[in-house]
């Protein structure tokens, strides 16, 4: 049989001929059929085997198990996904009892504090990749409860790419570096990822999130966390509520610009990890409000989407998020490998009162995670590693195995027994014994997708329509950047075809920039305006019940604190130390962090004869590593900053911060600096630019930092 591997694509093959080469390779393989590793032809590679259309996934599904088993064991010992991570210890405090909804003890009594370990991560990149990749961020929490460990394994985005776990290996294979050349690392801007996505309409909601600013957070402490799936709460009476989990950061949800992320990756690829570590060391503890969306079991079918569909959210306008607790991270790991690297999460680590739904992605994860730990940590005894140990003493009849640590005395390792007095005994439900929720399951054993999962575009529209104008522009530019890296025209065309179903102006804007021809067929009943102004249309696709959700836009996030913000002070010999110290004290009094930047790391003589030691030089850092800049005054200091060897460096700092819409405070006497920068005569037009003549400059500077950025001025500045 002829195989495509026998046909070489020469290095000098023109790009416009690669598509023809692809067609040739496809033709040669047109008779090949998808099989299992045993050669069995597969009839359906899209859906796991279920007990009914919306029933649970069956253990019998050997195709799903073979596929995920192979996937889970592909890399040793680095995690296949979520390899690059940062972690911290902390505490979860319950502020409002949920005993009405769940019998989980750590959610029952107000004031209960539960120790936790949290691991944040990127998904696609290897352990050595940058923190600043455009990517989903993992947000996994291990609660060490008195009833055993409970793991909430979530992300910073509330939905996922796929609806069924059988597609997870395909998704990750597509987004990982391409197997022929191992490129690109920690990036989705390449052929295989977008080839997969262009053929998977169910991914388009997640693509809107991934291409949004949510994919490049300012820090872990400024991103949301979500449980993604619908879970079940079960109370003492057996009453069931569906539940969606939320973690809302106290500091608000904020991001960095894409251009800024690229610079940070070069200057400090550990930017997020460093921020988390240093914040905790300084006592600026990251905090999140823990919230739940609760839906009575009888209301499961009242929405225009399926609660079991992991590509859907429950809009907060339909079911508000009830804030019931606080998650605080207050201690760094003592050893990164022993704790952050060896921590093992699993959505199947439950406590009584919390249970699964029949979400087919969740059902597959229940198999995958244990299998992954067996490969990565090398032993069924991974639960005995200190970071993974339950605070309860473990009593069962499991014995031996690689790396066994617990020494169990006696001769009994089975149940039931009489020699050991029958111990350990099964726990009754009233004693905290876990019992799965009883539900009636009936139907025909099938391998297909529920019809209630078919709508793929309505919530993608909801997300896009809910974004502010700057956020929409960033999302458009992200798609343009990503798809410009795709070398196969057919893939770009298919993606534009998907975008048409979300927003026609978005599709047109992207198509215009990536060389996809727009036809009347693509955009029925629409005239594309020459000036790019949006024209609203009635979509033929299903319209969401909620047209705009304020919770989906970062424009509506918290903007009342500078806690944890990093402000760079640019100083030089002769600096006005009095004014600088006054501002430093006020900023630090509000929770900000001040770091000094000077022409070199040599001691800086101030205007009163004292000396200052800077943490950075103008060549060892960049404006992208700071949330705001202060240009310190002093006649001699300004003169030194204006000498040729310093001038271009200082102006670059200022221009770059200005480009990225950040707050900049020019102290008295620094007019030559801002007048020679891009700020220039427009300084008074920008609410984030403060000059020494402003009597309320300090207060305005603090508020400008709290506001994060002035994104609305972005296009005008870069015009």
Considering the chains and any ligands shown, give keywords for the structure.
Hemocyanin, N-terminal domain; metal-binding; alpha/beta; hydrogen peroxide; 18 strands; Rossmann fold; Catalase_AS; disordered N terminus; 719 residues; 3 domains; 6-stranded parallel beta sheet; catalase activity; single chain; Catalase HpII,  Chain A, domain 1
The termini sit apart by: 57 Å
Largest sheet: 10 strands, antiparallel
* Backbone structural class: alpha/beta
Query: What is the helix fraction of residues, given as a range?
Result: 25-40%
Relevant CATH superfamily of the largest domain: Catalase core domain
Query: What is the annotated CATH architecture of the largest domain?
Result: Beta Barrel
DSSP, total strands: 18
Specify the CATH class of the largest domain.
Answer: Mainly Beta
Low-pLDDT residue spans:
1-19, 524-540
With helices defined by DSSP (H or I, 4 residues minimum), what is the helix count? 19
Keywords: Heme, Hydrogen peroxide, Iron, Metal-binding, Oxidoreductase, Peroxidase
Organism: Chryseobacterium taiwanense
Catalytic activity: 2 H2O2 = O2 + 2 H2O
Cofactor: heme
Question: What features would you describe in this structure?
Answer:
With 719 residues, this protein is of the alpha/beta class. The strands form 3 sheets. Strands 1, 2, 3, 4, 5, 6, 7, 8, 9 and 10 form a 10-stranded antiparallel beta sheet that branches. It has a 6-stranded parallel beta sheet with strand order 15-12-11-16-17-18, sandwiched between helices. It has a two-stranded antiparallel ribbon with strand order 13-14. It has 19 helices and 18 strands. It has helices at 15-28, 62-72, 168-175, 191-198, 204-210, 258-267, 271-281, 336-341, 360-376, 458-466, 469-484, 489-500, 504-514, 577-589, 635-641, 644-659, 671-675, 697-706, 714-718, and strands spanning 85-94, 113-122, 137-145, 148-155, 225-226, 231-234, 240-249, 287-296, 322-331, 354-355, 566-570, 593-598, 604-605, 611-612, 616-617, 628-631, 663-666, 689-691.
